[in-house]
Amino acid sequence: MASMQLITLSHLPANPLYIGYFRNVQNVSFLRDQLLTGNPDYEYAFVDASAILSAQHVLAACFRAINDLNAGRLRTRNVHSETVFSLSPNNNIAESFRRFGLADKTKHVIAIKVGMPTTPNVTEQTVRQHMTTNIRGTLVAFSDAALSETCDVASIRKLYKITDLRPDQAKSRKHQKQNNDDINHQATSEKNIDEIRELESVVLGTMALKGS
Predict the structure, then answer these.
(1) DSSP 184-203
(2) Is the pLDDT of residue 171 over 50?
(3) Residues 47 and 112: beta-carbon distance below 8 Å
(4) Taking a C-beta distance cutoff of 8 angstroms, is the pair 47, 134 a contact?
(5) What pLDDT is recorded for position 181?
């Protein structure tokens, strides 16, 4: 059975990450309302999973947000909203929330809680209980394989303005289409994973360059 994951980033041992990946969430509107009203019990980074390519995509945003917190240069209300903002390729805060946060169309949600020395009551047990009690969805593994099943690659390309394939990639796509009947499901899945990895490198680079 899948469970919430505890992840500690390199060089940031004082800020453990508690991450839950929920599919088919039924109370997205409620969760968004809690954020809008500033309910401290729902201080999470809630991310629309369709905009996420991989676990590293999320962790890179967390790393930047925590570093900005520790350096005293947050541009948003707290480290959780900063995590959502850090996913964006530009510095438009409102746009980042619309594109990567909760929306009416959101079905799958990644919930992230950042632990801090000032919040000793935030533990793996308390966060797990709160997440599973208040997020009405199916908790699944926070893994590249699971995320690849729900990411909207076309939308992500648009979000990060990634339009062109390399010539060798385009040729491969054309060859794949011509020989579609001869390619089994496993091979197609492997090609999709390869595309996601290619996109991931561009996305992470774009995120790193933002505001530099």
Answers:
(1) -HHHHHHHHHHHHHHHHHHH
(2) no
(3) yes
(4) no
(5) 44
Tens digit of pLDDT for each residue in 41-88? 999 999 999 999 999 999 999 999 999 999 999 999 999 999 999 999
**CA–CA separation, 170 vs 53, rounded Å?**
20
pTM for the structure as a whole: 0.87
C-beta of residue 88 within 8 angstroms of C-beta of residue 100: yes
DSSP string over 47-92: EEGGG---HHHHHHHHHHHHHHHHTT--SSSSHHHHHHHHTSSSS-
Q: Which helix (H) or strand (E) holds 204?
A: helix 185-209
Q: Which residues pair with residue 7 across a beta bridge?
A: 17
Helix or strand holding residue 144 (H, E) = helix 144-148
Residue 166's alpha-carbon distances to 17, 85, 193, in angstroms, are 36, 29, 16
